[in-house]
Recover the amino acids of this structure.
């Protein structure tokens, strides 16, 4: 499995029209950043400096936090009026706060929101503006090295020696690279009669990261496909994988919530298509492998993750579980959307398809071809297996044990499938599933846009 995407994000904070709690002067505000550690507990990450006598502070101290795409990172910003030297904030006046996720911030790059004096209460006075930047130098040196007039009896200069030369001449080297010039690194005299000349040419190129694309305006479109085949069991029976427990959940809903809560932060309108497959659908009860959960073929969108959950609960008593288990229709449906996105000239859209299934796939050959085709598009596929079935075919589609190929032998252009069985997370924290299945998505997104040589909609400012 690929390493999780961990980046350092720098947050710039400013406020406007803050409450004035001081008598005879203005407030002396400070911003503190807290991160949720679960169970309604918060841990302080960093705080800004105190700005004296100011209701519209623009804090110079940046707040830094590790960013993980595959997690929901809940943040709380608190603005306090500091009138003493104590580090403890309990004796300071609270001017307002704001809660959100780090995903919401980086997907917008800059947000302005009203401050609240108490959670779930009407807004108080003032606003907070948060701007995110990734902490990195996204330039990479592309180099070509050529050796001329080498004596066959003498070894080529070692990499260590070459690096030493580059470091020694780095000032001239980089100034020339910026213009794409060729630079004669050095001449190495081995004897009076033989001269060794090494030529290095190069140019600084931007290497865009996942956050560059997301902060630059790339939307992640989330689609869900749900297995309604008969092997799941009658939804009215407690033994069924589609049975809703007294608290209204099952394995399918757990997977939807876990993955959806992460991905939804990266889609502005939060309208998510949701489909079912393998069921007999009213009014004629013909088998369908691509029916909208809301039964609206013209608009299969659900409002947010909660909308998908509501549509799932609504559709269960109206359909008849049947079969077989075919993946390719829904994969092809999302691929058509991704193909339209691929026509754009910059990195504006990327698709993530979540398929939740209970068993062996029936159209394996067609699905292999669909995945090979989709690997050339801005698209990733996540498969979550529920129940106790044998998921060898899913592991084969994942491609971790070798490059997936179509029936005709065509390999995938890039790895886009991630499969995990839900039973592996029975004793794990509820966040663990999303962290596992989403870990590869950032690299998959970057690999597609790099393959197409596509820059972010709004590229980051050059590093000076």
């Amino acid at each position: 499995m690929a390493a999780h995407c961990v980046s350092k994000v720098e947050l710039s904070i400013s406020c406007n029209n803050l409450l004035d709690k001081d008598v005879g002067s203005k407030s002396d505000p400070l911003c503190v950043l807290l991160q949720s550690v679960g169970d309604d507990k918060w841990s302080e990450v960093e705080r800004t400096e105190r700005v004296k006598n100011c209701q519209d502070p623009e804090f110079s101290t940046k707040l830094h936090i590790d960013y993980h795409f595959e997690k929901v990172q809940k943040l709380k910003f608190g603005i306090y009026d500091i009138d003493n030297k104590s580090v403890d904030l309990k004796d300071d006046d609270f001017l307002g706060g704001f809660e959100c996720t780090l995903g919401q911030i980086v997907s917008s790059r800059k947000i302005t929101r009203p401050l609240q004096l108490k959670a779930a209460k009407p807004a108080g006075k003032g606003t907070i503006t948060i701007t995110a930047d990734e902490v990195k130098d996204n330039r990479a040196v592309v180099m070509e090295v050529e050796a001329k007039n080498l004596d066959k009896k003498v070894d080529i200069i070692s990499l260590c020696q070459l690096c030493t030369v580059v470091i020694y001449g780095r000032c001239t080297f980089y100034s020339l690279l910026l213009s794409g010039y060729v630079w004669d690194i050095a001449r190495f005299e081995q004897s009076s009669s033989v001269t060794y000349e090494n030529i290095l040419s190069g140019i600084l190129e931007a290497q865009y990261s996942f956050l560059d694309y997301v902060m630059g305006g790339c939307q992640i479109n989330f689609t869900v496909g749900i297995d309604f085949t008969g092997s799941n069991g009658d939804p009215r029976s407690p033994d069924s994988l589609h049975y809703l427990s007294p608290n209204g959940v099952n394995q399918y809903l757990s997977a939807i919530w876990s993955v959806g809560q992460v991905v939804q932060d990266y889609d502005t309108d939060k309208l998510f298509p949701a489909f079912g497959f393998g069921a007999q659908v009213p009014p004629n009860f013909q088998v369908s492998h691509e029916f909208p959960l809301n039964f609206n073929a013209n608009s299969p969108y659900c409002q947010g993750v909660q909308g998908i959950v509501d549509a799932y609960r609504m559709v269960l008593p109206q359909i008849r579980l049947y079969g077989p288990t075919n993946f390719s229709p829904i994969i092809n449906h999302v691929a058509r959307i991704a193909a339209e996105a691929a026509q754009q000239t910059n990195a504006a859209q990327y698709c993530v398809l979540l398929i939740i299934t209970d068993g062996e796939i029936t159209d394996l050959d067609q699905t292999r071809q669909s995945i090979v085709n989709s690997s050339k598009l801005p698209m990733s596929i996540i498969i979550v297996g529920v129940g106790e079935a044998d998921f060898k075919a899913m592991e084969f589609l994942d491609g971790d044990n070798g490059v997936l190929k179509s029936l005709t032998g065509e390999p995938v252009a890039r790895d886009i499938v991630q499969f995990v069985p839900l039973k592996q997370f029975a004793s794990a924290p509820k966040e663990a599933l999303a962290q596992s299945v989403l870990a590869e998505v950032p690299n998959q997104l970057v690999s597609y846009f790099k393959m197409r040589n596509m820059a972010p909609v709004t590229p980051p400012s050059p590093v000076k």
Q: What stands out?
A: Residues 139-206 form one domain. Residues 220 and 350 are 5 Å apart (CA to CA).
